[in-house]
Design goal:
The complex is a heterodimer of chains A (505) and B (232). By secondary structure, chain A is α/β, with parallel strands linked by helices. Chain A is 51% helix and 10% strand. Chain A has 23 helices and twelve strands. In chain A, strands 1-10-7-4-2-3 form a six-stranded parallel beta sheet, sandwiched between helices. In chain A, a hairpin with a 4-residue loop joins strand 5 and strand 6. Chain A is elongated. The N and C termini of chain A lie far apart (81 Å). The N terminus of chain A is likely disordered. Chain B is of the alpha/beta class and 232 residues long. Chain B has one domain: NagB/RpiA/CoA transferase-like (Rossmann fold), CATH 3.40.50. In chain B, 21% of the residues lie in helices and 20% in strands. Chain B is built from five helices and twelve strands. In chain B, the strands form three sheets. In chain B, strands 1-12-7-4-2-3 form a six-stranded parallel beta sheet, with helices on both faces. A four-stranded mixed beta sheet of chain B has the order 8-5-6-9. Chain B has a two-stranded antiparallel sheet with strand order 10-11. Chain B is globular and about 75 Å long. The chains are: A alpha/beta (505), B alpha/beta (232). Chains A and B meet through helix 2, helix 3, helix 4, strand 1 and helix 8 of A and helix 1, helix 4, helix 5, strand 9 and strand 10 of B. Strand 9 of chain A pairs antiparallel with strand 9 of chain B, so a sheet runs across the interface.
Chain lengths: 505, 232
């Protein structure tokens, strides 16, 4: 068989958005984001709101932990038998009148979708919010083919009208406050269709009303829709989309042709498994007992909804991720974004600093794995964009151990750096030295005395503000307390001697 | 190798740690979670939870249902009302009120055009099942529910559900929906789970009711625990 390396796109001809081209490494991007006070205010307000809601509704369920266990186990079952579930899904979707397509990468998926749209004779499509199509850069690819894709989710509309990039999985415009959104609507809506009403205020209800008016004519006119999928049931061929606004229902119901793009990992074994995921997802995601609308369809239903249904299954790095027995748990992600909302790093830097459609803790483990060895300095920096505090693991409804994968990926980055250096990296030298020192009580004692003496030399008022040499970078944003004059080990052995002396008296 | 074969082959290569004789059932799934989170009176819980989404719940007896339907439609000022096929005709007997309201019932036979749907002021449907804990109604294109577009395009959705159709929680509701009255072999009808009116949290994560779907949702619960005139 062909290996994944032979057809992997290189950084220069890539079309997907797993990593945005030209993104600086996380530390540089974070610095820019941290300087933006408005952004930090918007983010703190939004993440605090959603965190409180999530805790309230998950707290209602005494068995939340058991539900998480079941969700995690179901995803593990799917991933370990992904090939047979996909074959089963293909059979059931086909039996129900759908057509299944397979795409190895973003390019192939985009070509399939563009060809399907062209075959209908249409040059515009309406879209339901979908991470998969964001990931493959579908809108940009369709634009090159002369096809206009209209985003219909309110937040996606804000991003599209503002020529912006998404900064959150659930709420892509989380970095914008109401006034900024009003300004975008007022200045940009006219260029895409029905203009914003005169005298539009920044009241959320007024903004939602403006979006309703702007998009309604598009829904009523659309002949083709493109969606993602939250899940696909192998047993029945049923596809599900979970949403709030009704734009999803519009796209899934009114057009004649529906094209659904879905990552291969989204398959679930049985219809009854939804009893787990429809409890986990809304509560973890928007902090609701249930989201306003969930649509499920099975192939084509005569006289109801699109009469032509295509399901495009995409790999795009997922099988590569699957090869890593530690890292593959990232594929269990149900895109709820709870980990973003609890992450102290995300709350301060926002999503753009991650340079990927998948920001936050899950992005930090997903993006580097999806691009794999084709990764860059940028993706290499993502596993380090974390304090390893573990809040993401606690919040994850399918118990992805994000800190574990972060540490695992950090080790891989360090190892691959070593492979590419003729001389050992300073990091490797430091770790090697540490191993020798920690193995010898005598060396450790000597090191502690030396360190304490040296630290006092460069400290001021009990704090070290800048560390010397290669440690300077670390101390740039951190103060280090001066080590105690006497180490615990030194104090202990002195105490022992004194105690023994007293015993003898 | 085509894309399908290649992706399947990549998966099999990636899963070399999975023993060849392992089956999906060998991967344990602990089902220790509760079958239901409902406590107390199911109808009361359902009403509270639906109203938490700022939808209105009206409880009535089967005998008063026609009058309650007319009252709800009149209250919302809806006169052009879509009534899907299979909706019990005797529930539509009150089509005029002393306050001057009168109904124009729109049938979907032949199918209404999108423009006609857009011009309708309301849709009146039954439901397949309700879920008390989550305050959800589910439509499955059964009698009185119609195709999906009918309950989507009009701005006001009035839904009639029987008390006995309300399941305590999600697992029981899914079991009803999956019941192989229509076997799951490709003839499964589309399902729409509706929890309150259309809403968005996209602006500063504050919930705002009313975007693209019906901005107003009223649910009439027909309490038939003591049947009065044999309605179903």
């Amino acid at each position: 068989m062909a290996t994944t390396d032979t057809d992997k796109t290189t950084d220069t001809d890539k079309t997907d958005n797993i990593v945005w081209l030209g993104s600086p490494a996380f530390p540089q991007a974070a610095k820019t984001a941290l300087a933006d006070d408005q952004l930090r205010r918007n983010l703190r307000h939004a993440t605090t709101t959603i965190r409180d809601k999530r805790l309230h509704v998950t707290g209602e369920l005494a068995d939340w932990e058991q539900l998480r266990d079941a969700g995690a186990a179901l995803k593990r079952r799917v991933l370990r038998h992904l090939d047979s579930y996909l074959e089963q899904l293909e059979t059931s979707v086909t039996a129900a009148g759908g057509i299944v397509h397979w795409a190895r990468d973003a390019d192939e998926a985009n070509t399939i979708v563009a060809d399907l749209i062209r075959a209908t004779g249409q040059t515009e499509v309406v879209k339901v919010k979908s991470m998969a199509t964001q990931e493959i850069g579908l809108n940009e690819a369709l634009a090159k083919e002369g096809i206009t894709a209209y985003e219909t989710d309110l937040a996606e509309l804000i991003v599209q009208l503002g020529d912006d990039r998404p900064s959150h999985i659930l709420v892509p415009a989380i970095h914008r406050n109401r006034t900024e959104i009003r300004d975008i609507f007022t200045s940009r809506m006219a260029g895409y269709g029905r203009p914003a009403p005169e005298g539009l205020t920044d009241e959320p209800a007024a903004l939602a009303e403006a979006a309703r008016g702007h998009l309604r004519e598009k829904f009523l006119r659309a002949k083709v829709a493109v969606s993602g999928a939250n899940f696909a049931i192998a047993e029945t061929g049923t596809i599900g989309v979970v949403e709030s606004e009704g734009n999803g229902r519009m796209c899934l119901t009114l057009p004649e042709t529906l094209i659904t793009v879905m990552g291969i990992e989204k398959v679930l074994p049985q219809f009854s498994d939804l009893e787990v995921f429809l409890q986990l997802l809304p509560r973890a995601s928007t902090g609701e007992r249930m989201n306003p609308y969930t649509s499920m369809w099975t192939g084509v239903t005569p006289g109801d909804g699109p009469q032509s249904f295509h399901l495009v299954l995409i790999d795009n790095g997922r099988t590569l991720t699957l090869t890593d027995t530690v890292g593959r748990q990232a594929l269990a992600c149900i895109r709820c974004s709870a980990c973003l909302n609890v992450c102290p790093v995300y709350e301060r830097t926002g999503g753009h600093a991650y340079g990927s459609v998948y920001p936050g803790p899950i992005g930090a483990i997903l993006a580097p794995q999806l691009v794999g060895a084709a990764g860059s300095k940028h993706t290499d920096s993502l596993p380090f964009a974390s304090t390893l505090c573990g809040a993401c693991y606690d919040a994850c409804p399918v118990k992805i151990n994000i800190p574990e994968v972060l540490v695992h990926l950090r080790a891989k980055v360090v190892e691959s750096k070593q492979e590419h250096h003729l001389l050992p990296t300073p990091e490797a030298v430091a770790m090697h030295t540490a191993r020798i020192v920690f193995n010898s009580p005598r060396l450790l004692g000597a090191g502690q005395r030396l360190g304490a003496a040296g630290a006092r030399l460069i400290s001021r008022g009990g704090v070290i503000r800048g560390l010397p040499g290669p440690l300077r970078g670390w101390s740039r944003s951190r103060d280090t307390p001066v080590p105690a004059k006497e180490s615990f080990r030194a104090w202990w052995s002195a105490r022992e001697q004194k105690y023994e002396g007293e015993e003898r008296q | 190798m085509n894309a399908r074969e290649e992706i399947l082959a990549r998966i099999r290569t990636a899963l070399t740690d999975v023993p060849a004789d392992e089956t999906p059932d060998d991967v344990p799934v602990p089902r220790t979670y509760q079958a239901s989170h409902a406590t107390g009176d199911i109808l009361e819980l359902f009403s509270q939870r639906v109203e938490d989404y700022r939808a209105t719940v009206i409880r009535t007896s089967a005998a008063d249902l026609p009058e309650q339907i007319a009252a709800a439609l009149a209250r919302r000022g809806a006169r052009r009302i879509i009534v899907p096929e299979g909706f019990p005709p005797h529930w539509l007997l009150a089509n005029e009120r002393p306050d001057g309201w009168s109904a124009e019932w729109l049938r979907d036979d032949p199918p209404l055009s999108l423009t006609e749907l857009d011009r309708a002021e309301a849709v009146l449907t039954t439901a397949a099942v309700g879920i008390a804990v989550t305050g959800t109604i589910v439509l499955n294109a059964g009698p009185g529910q119609g195709r999906r577009a009918l309950s989507l395009v009009p701005d006001y959705h009035l839904c009639v559900i029987q008390a006995r159709q309300i399941a305590p929680d999600l697992p029981a509701a899914l079991a009803v929906l999956a019941e192989p009255a229509e076997p799951l072999n490709g003839t499964t009808k589309p399902l729409t789970f509706i929890s309150g009116p259309s809403a968005t949290s996209d602006i500063e994560l504050n919930r705002v009711e009313g975007v693209h779907g019906p901005r107003t949702l009223d649910v009439i619960v027909v309490d038939d625990t003591t049947p009065k005139n044999g309605e179903n």
